[in-house]
Write a structure and sequence with these properties.
Elements (H helix, E strand, L loop, with lengths): L3 H6 L6 H15 E3 L3 E4 L11 E8 L3 E8 L2 E9 L8 E4 L2 E4 L6 E6 L4 E6 L1
Parallel strand pairs: 2-6
Antiparallel strand pairs: 1-2, 3-4, 4-5, 5-8, 6-7, 8-9
């Protein structure tokens, strides 16, 4: 049993859900990833978030993503890796899939059709 003075000096409970659960859930709405697959906007609430963008989301494999969407659909995505080896194998959006490789030091710009529009060095 705690003594009276211990009750007042005890550390308050730490609730991990309130601190990390919401940002993690929000990230999963916008990007889901495995070591070899990257899914863009898999659970976007299109009727509530018809347009927007997110920058700097980290995916598995050391890939960083910027995404923008308009009218509830992907507008463009930028992907790059700062890791030491190529990352990913497939990029998914809706029913579309494209095979990709993201070597470190290059930025790739993809259209809503998952076509690579431009590549440049970091």
């Amino acid at each position: 049993m705690l003594k009276k003075e211990e009750v007042y000096t005890a550390h308050p409970p730490f609730q991990i859900d309130a601190n990390f659960g919401f940002p993690a859930a929000l990230s999963e709405i916008l990007v889901q990833s495995t070591r070899s697959d990257l899914y863009l906007l898999p659970a976007l609430p299109r009727d509530r978030w018809s347009q927007g963008c997110v920058k700097g989301l980290m995916a598995r494999g050391g890939v960083t993503i910027n995404i923008s969407w308009k009218e509830g659909s992907l507008h463009e995505a930028l992907l790059w890796s700062t890791g030491s080896q190529n990352s990913l194998a497939k990029l998914h959006y809706g029913g579309q899939v494209t095979r990709i490789s993201v070597p470190p030091g290059l930025v790739y710009r993809f259209s809503k059709e998952l076509k690579c529009l431009k590549t440049w060095a970091l």
